[in-house]
Specification:
Structural class: alpha/beta
Largest sheet: 9 strands, mixed
CATH architecture of the largest domain: 2-Layer Sandwich
Number of strands: 14
CATH class of the largest domain: Alpha Beta
Pfam families: GFO_IDH_MocA (PF01408), GFO_IDH_MocA_C3 (PF22725)
GO molecular function: nucleotide binding
Domain Gfo/Idh/MocA-like oxidoreductase N-terminal: 3-118
Strand order of the largest sheet: 7-8-9-6-10-11-12-14-13
CATH topology of the largest domain: Dihydrodipicolinate Reductase, domain 2
Number of helices: 9
Mean pLDDT: 93
Protein name: Oxidoreductase, Gfo/Idh/MocA family
Oligomer: single chain
Number of domains: 2
Radius of gyration: 22 Å
Domain GFO/IDH/MocA-like oxidoreductase: 156-216
Order of helices and strands: EHEHHEHEHEHEHEEEEEEEEHH
Helix content: 25-40%
CATH superfamily of the largest domain: Dihydrodipicolinate Reductase, domain 2
């Protein structure tokens, strides 16, 4: 079992602590939180060991799980990697792309593995159709959330949209060619609503919308590709696959047939895979343990986390143009 330590015991940090404690792939040795009053409270309530010194926690652990505000990611991650310890770090990986590049180089130098917490990659609805998404040419993503003061210290692109950016980059095997974006600040100092249109070199276009002041929650993406439409509801954890094939000569009465102007007939049919329930956060932590033990590439590498951050920051920069 890998000895795991957690840095940060806020809302998400407490979830990570609980899951690491119940995992049979880790031995949770304790946590460190800069807010000593909160650390004391969490230790007393849940029985986890609260380290008073971060360096001591790093020294005792094989892996450090960083669940702190983004602005602190770079400095603590550097400390973890420089100590030769493996790093799981919540998204976004760092505050700037340059910081992320430095962490990548440092991890390579010290021979440690790193994974970024882009949890939607482990959403069971997405996982059930990921291998069916092949060369999508149009993608539409909506990520809408009711207002929550937590997270409003960063633009909605880094708070919410970055999830969809990472998912899209994982299925579109092409470089970004062009992008246009707009953002509006409604209640925060940074944009609360944002829309981005990303054009890729291979012709794929992705249209992303994110809002944190909506009346209802929505996390849905649609992927359009040759002869197929794939819908993923990340919130409800359901998916839909609509495919087309050449229509038979003698279709049955209930077959759905489309005919284009050239007279070509296609039959529409549904091919929905089953979705197996899971705990996505536990899965991302445990696959990282597997990557460490088996010396394999993590599911979401530091480089992939850096690329998602780079695109997110380019979107934010375009707001002021």
């Amino acid at each position: 079992m890998l000895k795991a330590g957690v840095l940060g015991a806020g809302h998400l940090g407490k979830i990570h602590l609980k899951l690491l404690k119940q995992s049979d792939k880790y031995e949770l040795i304790g946590f460190y939180d800069a807010d000593h009053e909160n650390a004391k409270k969490v230790a007393e309530e849940f029985g986890y060991r609260a380290y008073s010194d971060l360096d001591e926690l790093i020294a005792d652990a094989d892996m450090i799980d960083v669940v702190t505000p983004t602005l602190s990611h770079f400095e603590v991650a550097k400390k973890v990697i420089s100590a030769g310890k493996h790093l799981f770090i919540e998204k976004p990986i760092t505050n700037t792309f340059e910081e992320a590049e430095e962490l990548i180089a440092l991890a390579e130098k010290h021979g440690v593995k790193g994974q970024v917490g882009h949890v939607e990659r482990f959403n069971p609805a997405f996982q059930s159709v990921a291998n069916r998404i092949e060369n999508p040419m149009f993608i539409e993503a909506h990520r809408l959330a009711e207002f929550n003061p937590r997270g409003t210290d960063v633009p909605v692109v880094l708070d919410l949209m970055i999830h969809d950016i990472d998912v899209i980059l994982s299925v579109v095997q092409s470089e970004v060619k062009n992008m246009n974006a707009s953002g509006v600040s409604v209640i925060s100092d940074t944009p609360d609503i944002a829309n981005a249109r990303i054009e890729f070199e291979n012709g794929c276009v992705a249209n992303l919308t994110a809002s944190r002041i909506s009346m209802k929650n929505m996390r849905k993406s649609r992927f359009f590709q040759r002869d197929a439409y794939i819908s993923v509801d990340f919130l409800e954890k359901v998916c839909e696959v609509v495919k087309m094939k050449d229509a038979p000569e003698d279709p049955d009465d209930f077959a759905m047939i489309l005919q284009n102007a050239e007279g070509v007939k296609k039959q529409i049919y549904f091919d929905n895979p089953s979705v197996s329930p899971n705990n996505a956060i536990l899965d991302e932590l445990e696959t990282f343990a597997d990557a460490i033990v088996e010396d394999q590439e993590p599911v979401v590498t530091l480089s992939q986390g850096a690329k998602a951050l780079q695109i997110a920051n380019q979107i934010i920069a375009s707001f002021s143009k």
